Amino acid sequence: MIVRTVEDLKTQGSYREMPGVWSSARYLLRRDGMGFTLTRTTVAAGSSQTIA
Fold first, then answer.
1. Which of 2, 5, 7, 44 has its CA at a distance of 20 to 30 angstroms from the CA of residue 29?
2. What is the dihedral of CA 13, 17, 22, 26, to 10 degrees?
3. Four-residue CA torsion sign, 26, 30, 32, 36
4. Region 30-34 average pLDDT
């Protein structure tokens, strides 16, 4: 079992955020060898973003 906290992700470089707008936490990656990835992305209500 793999157990990671947000603090662990920040240390590993798997957490990014724009405070008050969005955050992305990548809990499982290819290098973990699980056959899938697990990411939690949170976007603030009412925010507007352009995806290029």
1. 44
2. 10
3. positive
4. 93
Q: What is each CA distance from 42 to 1, 26, 30, 39, 46, in whole angstroms?
A: 24, 12, 21, 10, 12
Q: What are phi and psi of 31, to 5 degrees?
A: -65, -15
* Token reading at 37: 């990835």
Q: What is the mean pLDDT of residues 18-27?
A: 93
- Residue 27: pLDDT band (50, 70, 90) is very high
- The Cα-based distances of 24 to 8, 45 in angstroms read 13, 15
Distance CA 12, CA 22 (A): 19
Q: How far is CA 31 from CA 7, 27, 39, 41, 44, in A?
A: 19, 11, 14, 20, 30
